[in-house]
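Section 4.2 – Deliverable D4.2 (structural model, holo form)

The reporting period included a commitment to supply a predicted holo structure for the target in complex with adenosine monophosphate. Inputs used:
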Amino acid sequence: MLHTLKDLPLSDKDIAPLIISADKVAHVQMNNPLQHALLVLIKSGYTAIPVLDASYRLRGLISKSLILDAMLGDEDFELERLSTLTVNNVMAKDVPCIRPDAPFSKALSLLINHSFLCVVDEEQAFSGILTRRSTLALISKYLHQH
Ligand code: AMP
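Output (C-alpha cells):
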C-alpha cells in the first residue's frame, strides 16, 4: 500500500522518457502574425502551444484565449488585429518549465496547475514538452500493475 508520493518508486525517476520531443511539438515564432498562430492552434486542436525564437529557444506561450482577448475591441471583435498584431504582442511570457533531468516528483507538482510543461535547459533551449496526460497515464499504468 502506498502512503505518500515518496513510496512511489517512480518519484525519483527522471522525466526524460515522457518528453514529447521538440520536432513533434506544434509551435509558432514570435514574429508570426496572430492569424498564423490561430490557424496552427485550430488545425492542431491544442489550447496553447510554445513560442520559440529562430534559435529554438523558448520565449512564451500562445493560446486561443489570449488571441480572442487581444481581438476584443470596445464593442466588437476586431478581425484586422489578426494581421496587424504579432505573436510577440500577445503571448504569455511566464511559461511553466522544467529541466530535462528533473525528477518525476517535481513534474507532478507542477502539473497540478498546468496541462503541460515546456522542457528547457539553462539557456532556454527547447527540447520538448511534458503533458499531464502522459504523466497520469504512467502513474495509472504503474498503479494497475502493483
Ligand atoms: P494533452 O494532454 O495531449 O491533451 O495535451 C495538453 C496540452 O499540451 C494541449 O492542449 C497542448 O496545449 C499541449 N500539447 C500536447 N501535445 C502537443 C504537441 N504535439 N504540440 C504542441 N502542444 C501540445
